[in-house]
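Exercise 7b. Backbone tokens:
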């Protein structure tokens, strides 16, 4: 039954490409392309991003129109639909509403944990509200409405590890070399088909062996997909 299992899914890097680097390229703003690799203080990083948006008069409508040209990964919608037939699906992401709203509408999760932008009457970002005060994605497990006997989680980067370790079966999806090395206790896969096999398995699976975690261009992805 659906109520017996819950899946916690990351958005960027698992179901969708990274949004900020894409916006940076489209708007021609280096400040939007910076990630936590360059600025580990996430609050400061977001402040810089908001300042860059406002300095160039970029509204939330502009952001959403631009992201409309950045589709979800191939197979992501079908993957989530398949899961939703079997279990509760909860999205846990460090992205922001309403910036991520088009993806959420398309994926139709049962519940969402994400940050929120504060907008003024000109539709420009004036601040942000972190749903978990940046204490970690693992807080979604206790904060969610799930009462499932079996919980799963999928993420791709360092900021997902606390969530993956807080559930019964945490799985990395196409992680970078650095993330894989930091999480040798976790299984990792590279396709939605493999994920579905692990989610539907009744017993804890044997380790799935891989020799590489390529990105979409056949190279190892840099671990700048955190934010």
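Sequence design result:
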């Amino acid at each position: 039954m659906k109520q017996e299992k819950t899946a916690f899914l990351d958005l960027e890097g698992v179901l969708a490409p990274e949004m900020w680097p894409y916006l940076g390229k489209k708007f021609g703003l280096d400040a939007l392309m910076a990630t936590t690799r360059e600025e580990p203080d996430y609050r400061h990083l977001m402040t810089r991003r908001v300042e860059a948006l406002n300095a160039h008069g970029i509204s939330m409508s502009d952001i959403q129109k631009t992201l409309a040209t950045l589709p979800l990964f191939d197979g992501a919608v079908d993957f989530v639909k398949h899961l939703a037939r079997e279990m509760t699906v909860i999205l846990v992401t460090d992205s922001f509403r309403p910036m991520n709203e088009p993806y959420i509408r398309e994926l139709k999760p049962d519940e969402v944990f994400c940050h929120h932008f504060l907008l003024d009457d000109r539709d420009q970002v004036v601040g942000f509200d972190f749903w978990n005060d940046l204490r970690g994605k693992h807080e979604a497990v206790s904060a969610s409405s799930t009462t499932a006997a079996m919980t799963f989680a999928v993420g791709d980067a360092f900021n997902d590890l606390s969530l993956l370790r807080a559930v019964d079966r945490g799985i990395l999806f196409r992680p970078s070399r650095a993330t894989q090395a930091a999480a040798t206790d976790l299984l990792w896969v590279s396709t939605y088909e493999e994920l579905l096999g692990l989610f539907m398995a009744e017993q804890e699976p044997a380790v799935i062996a891989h020799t590489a975690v390529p990105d979409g261009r056949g190279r190892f992805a840099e671990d700048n997909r955190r934010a």
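Instructor comment: Confidence is low (pLDDT under 50) at residues 207-226. Residues 52 and 200 are 44 Å apart (CA to CA).
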